[in-house]
Write a structure and sequence with these properties.
This is F-box domain-containing protein. It comes from Mycena alexandri. By secondary structure, this protein is α/β, with parallel strands linked by helices. It has 3 domains: about 40 residues; about 140 residues; about 140 residues. Strands 1-2-3-4-5-6-7-8-9-10 form a 10-stranded parallel sheet, covered by helices on one side. Helix 5 packs parallel to helix 6 and helix 6 runs parallel beside helix 7. The protein starts with 16 loop residues before the first helix and ends in a 6-residue tail after the last strand. About 25% of the residues are buried.
Length: about 350
């Protein structure tokens, strides 16, 4: 019997979403092949666009290879440093999820800082699917940085602030922007789940990122020096949803790590603490023993199930004596007996 209402097949077989995803995955390593195939059918365009533009790096010209292919583009950028941003703003990118922005170099600093922020903000506004942002660079004030995100921050779920800092106040800087430029206070980053920054940046960005604290699940602190100068105290009192804390630090800063954990609210959800040490030596055995005793008795880490310790391979490069894993593990008898300690030694291949 002939089917009364047959399900219509795609107009072309290559428009089947599942098949298309597999094909695009296979071609994603070659931009040329992917672009060529995207011309076959309009149905290919969204998926090809996602793979090509999910991560865009806005680099200053001096970081490009001065090859013949780039000479003309470099000349255009030097004459009009915002031309690249203008071009990106004119490209519709409905499937872009991740963007990496590096605002360094002369063209992105000083008097052009405000103009650049307007261009990048326009790009962010044109990408409704943007959920992950990696930012790097210097800014004259927190209001400049704020301005980048004022119309898209509500959708950001992952934010990496790598080498982001405010200009040193001791250096001569242009005057602050007019009051009309400074964005009004709003609930930025209310959906943020993952945040990466340096501990020294915490005080600078704490007020800006405060709306994200109740929803934050993963926090990574890089190059932590702790309160070595007596002024880097982190308050985690609002991080009730935090499930994972990654700290890149030194063995001598473990007391600071404990103090930071002590600032967590009692109703926190921390399950994993990951510590990456630049160097470990037997001379800090007392610090390791104290950390082991204190962390197993802290009220603020009652839900902690894993303490990961990653031993850096830098000691191998610097021909320093390397501590073996069993010896290092013996410094943490309480964590070991509870089955919560996990030790990893990094490979030289990662460096």
């Amino acid at each position: 019997m002939k089917e009364q209402n047959p399900t219509p097949l795609p107009r072309i077989v290559l428009a089947i979403p599942e098949l298309l995803d597999h094909i695009v995955d296979y071609l994603a390593d070659s931009s040329e092949d992917l672009l060529a195939c995207a011309l076959v059918s309009k149905s290919w365009v969204p998926r090809a666009q996602f793979y090509l533009f999910r991560k865009i790096e806005l680099l200053p010209p001096n970081k490009w290879n001065d090859t013949q292919v780039h000479v003309r583009l470099l000349q255009i950028l030097r004459a009009s440093p915002f031309r690249l941003l203008d071009c990106l703003y004119s490209i519709p990118l409905p499937n872009l999820e991740e963007i990496s922005v590096e605002c360094t170099g002369d063209q992105y600093a000083w008097s052009m800082d405000i103009q650049t922020s307007l261009r990048v903000r326009d790009i962010f506004m044109s990408i409704p699917t943007l959920s992950r942002v990696n930012f790097s660079g210097k800014f004259r004030s927190i209001s400049i940085f704020h301005h980048y995100f004022e119309n898209c921050a509500a959708n950001i779920q992952s934010l990496e602030l790598v080498n982001v800092c405010l200009e040193d106040e001791e250096h001569e800087t242009p005057p602050d922007p007019p009051p009309s430029f400074i964005p009004s206070r709003m609930q930025l980053f209310s959906q943020l789940k993952s945040l990466q920054l340096q501990d020294l940046q915490w005080a600078q960005f704490q007020r800006l990122l405060a709306p994200s604290f109740p929803s934050l699940e993963c926090l990574k602190l890089q190059d932590c020096v702790g309160n070595v100068d007596g002024n880097i105290d982190l308050d985690f009192g609002m991080l009730t949803a935090l499930k994972r804390l990654d700290v890149d630090t030194y063995e001598s800063r473990l007391p600071w790590v404990l103090a930071t954990l002590g600032s967590l609210p009692l109703n926190n959800s921390l399950q994993t603490l990951s510590l990456r040490f630049h160097c470990v030596t037997a001379q800090h055995q007392d610090i390791f023993n104290t950390f082991d005793t204190d962390i197993t008795n802290m009220d603020t880490v009652h839900s902690l199930r894993r303490v990961e310790m990653h031993l850096s391979a830098w000691q191998l490069i610097n021909t320093q004596p390397v501590m073996d894993v069993p010896t290092f593990q013996s410094y943490f008898p309480s964590l070991t007996s509870k089955g919560r300690l996990f030790i990893y030694r990094e490979s030289l291949l990662r460096l």
